[in-house]
Design a protein that fits this description.
Distance between the termini of chain A: 25 Å
Radius of gyration of chain B: 18 Å
Structural class of chain B: alpha/beta
Shape of chain B: globular
Strand content of chain A: 15-25%
Structural class of chain A: alpha/beta
Number of helices of chain B: 9
Order of helices and strands of chain B: HHHHEHEHEHEHEH
Number of domains of chain A: 1
Shape of chain A: globular
Oligomer: heterodimer
Number of strands of chain B: 5
CATH architecture of chain A: Alpha-Beta Barrel
Strand content of chain B: 5-15%
CATH class of the largest domain in chain B: Alpha Beta
CATH class of chain A: Alpha Beta
CATH topology of chain A: TIM Barrel
Largest sheet of chain A: 8 strands, parallel
Helix content of chain A: 40-55%
Radius of gyration of chain A: 17 Å
Number of helices of chain A: 13
Distance between the termini of chain B: 22 Å
Strand order of the largest sheet of chain B: 2-1-3-4-5
Largest sheet of chain B: 5 strands, parallel
Strand order of the largest sheet of chain A: 1-12-9-8-5-4-3-2
Number of domains of chain B: 2
CATH superfamily of the largest domain in chain B: Cobalamin-binding domain
Number of strands of chain A: 12
């Protein structure tokens, strides 16, 4: 089987996809509606999103399963459909990706806090195991655990994916720039701190997603590189912070804005570059052009 | 000031729940908020003083440190846990009227949004600063906010949202509350929200951190 890390070892810089959530909203997903349910009720719309990123030049695409864990689905009364919805998510992206592009099964946080005893380690492990297992069954090549802020939850998710699937395991956390200019997750974790724990837990690619635009991501990549020269780094950057106007949410960074920082982020040590909230196939297309020209 | 209350405020600030709690490591084996509050009550310390001179200064210090990015969510949660442990001992005194809270704060995450970490954090900080908190949960519609506002005249309402998509609902709820119960103060917060948005939807106040909500309430209930 082809592996993402083999491509990186060849010296390639790869392009990942852009946003799913904001794309779904454009297609009519309503607030309060479960995005993962669309994998069965609106599968052609999901396929369309997946395909649009392949067409834009992405080497890999994610799956519509960010909130597909037991706890999030329970909020919609769909907790008994973990397998069905995640498998369908991966199958749709697989169909769009064909055999020559990678599929990353998206796994987001549960929203439950270990330290407040809202959930046990064993329950988290089981939830991430079930979701990863279903994503692999649907055809995912890798599991991407993302938007994590609590290092312990991230570590458990990485272990669960690693120990129960044959997929490559990627983990990205979400950092803010704090007043001192350093980067920390909401739970106080630094990129350097994250690196050691996630690599030890079995992640073969790590990085950052979401956050406040691609410029901040450069600093985060540098910090990871300072503590680990080898680990492949994946960045899924937001198109900046959302701005709200007259019932519409817009993101400030254009495809050209994002593309203008790609060379710099590659030089800092990133191996895979894609987008998060607010990025579109146009963003990915521009990123793809820069990546191709840099090589 | 009573030495017990100084100690209690430190337990709150550093998140020392009780003697058995291993957190924070440098206070291991010491009495926590649980034991000290009980002891203070047994020694006849006024419950109002326990709240105002023990819990509140501790919560205020952690709130300020959080705003300054010197601590993060886990430390605040531990402080909140220590605070709620102490509150359990004080509850009977609130009910009997021996101790009074400064006012009432109603909080909820708006319709369509199931995220509750930020909302809970604000609720706990506000409670620890001497307010009665009514938590309506997540995915809360206008009607529930309005009912709660009618049942609790003079309460301030806090609206929370994490998703950019549910900001729209925040606008509707804020306007519905203002229309149904004129004069009700509405404060908003959450990752996608800012001052501009606050002004546009006719809310009274926005804060990027829990301490800002406490300070807003303190100006209204002084």
């Amino acid at each position: 089987m082809r592996k993402i890390i083999h491509e990186i070892q060849k010296g390639r810089v790869l392009v990942s996809d852009g946003a799913w959530g904001t794309f779904l909203q454009k297609k009519g997903l309503l607030p309060g509606e479960c995005p993962e349910q669309w994998n069965v009720t609106r599968s052609e719309d999901i396929f369309d999103i997946a395909k649009s990123y392949i067409r834009a030049g992405a080497d890999m695409i994610e799956t519509n399963s960010f909130g597909g864990n037991y706890f999030k689905l329970k909020g919609y009364g769909l907790e008994n459909q973990v397998y069905e919805l995640n498998k369908a998510a991966a199958a749709i992206s697989r169909r769009a990706a064909g055999s020559d592009h990678f599929v990353l099964g998206s796994v987001g946080p549960t929203g439950k806090l270990l330290m407040m005893e809202e959930v046990t380690e064993a329950e988290l492990y089981e939830a991430f195991k079930a979701q990863s297992f279903a994503l692999e069954a649907g055809g995912a090549d890798a599991i991407v655990i993302e938007t994590m802020t609590d290092l312990e939850e991230a570590r458990i998710a990485v272990k669960a994916a690693k120990e129960n699937t044959a997929c490559e395991v990627i983990c990205t956390m979400t950092f803010d720039k704090i007043l001192s200019g350093e980067y920390r997750t909401m739970m106080g974790i630094s990129p350097a701190e994250m690196t050691e724990t996630l690599v030890e837990a079995g992640a073969t690619i790590i990085g950052a997603n979401c956050g406040n635009g691609i410029a901040d991501m450069i600093g985060i990549v540098k910090e990871i590189r300072q503590v680990n020269a080898q680990i492949p780094i994946l960045i899924h950057a937001n198109a900046g912070m959302p701005q709200y106007c007259d019932g519409e949410t817009t993101f400030p960074e254009s495809p050209a804005d994002m593309a203008s920082r790609v060379k710099e982020i590659i030089e800092a040590g990133a191996n895979i570059i894609g987008g998060c909230c607010g990025t579109t196939p146009d963003h990915i297309c521009e990123v793809h052009h820069v990546v191709k020209s840099v090589k | 000031m009573n030495e017990l209350l100084t100690k209690l405020s430190e337990c709150i600030e550093f998140g020392k729940i009780n003697m058995a709690s291993p957190y924070p490591p440098n206070m291991k084996g010491q009495e926590g908020a649980d034991e000290i509050t009980r002891k203070a009550l047994e020694e006849g310390v006024n419950p109002q003083d326990i709240l105002s001179l023990g819990l509140m200064p501790g919560m205020e210090r952690i709130g300020v440190k959080f705003r300054e990015n010197k601590v993060f969510v886990p430390q605040v949660l531990m402080s909140a846990k220590a605070m709620s442990t102490a509150m359990l001992h004080l509850k009977p005194h609130f009910l009997s009227g021996a101790a009074k809270q400064k006012g009432t704060f109603i909080i909820g995450t708006v319709l369509g949004d199931l995220h509750d970490i930020g909302k809970n954090l604000v609720g706990m900080m506000v409670e620890g600063n001497g307010y009665k908190v009514i938590d309506l949960g997540t995915d809360v519609n206008s009607e529930k906010f309005i009912d709660a506002a009618k049942e609790n005249p003079d309460a301030v309402i806090g609206l929370s949202a994490l998703l950019t998509t549910t900001m729209v609902n925040m606008e509707k709820i804020a306007r519905d509350i203002k229309e149904a119960v004129p004069g009700t103060l509405v404060t908003i917060g959450g990752a996608p929200v800012n001052n501009d948005f606050c002004a546009r939807i006719g809310a009274d106040h926005y804060s990027p951190d829990p301490q800002g909500v406490v300070e807003f309430l303190n100006t209204k209930f002084a």
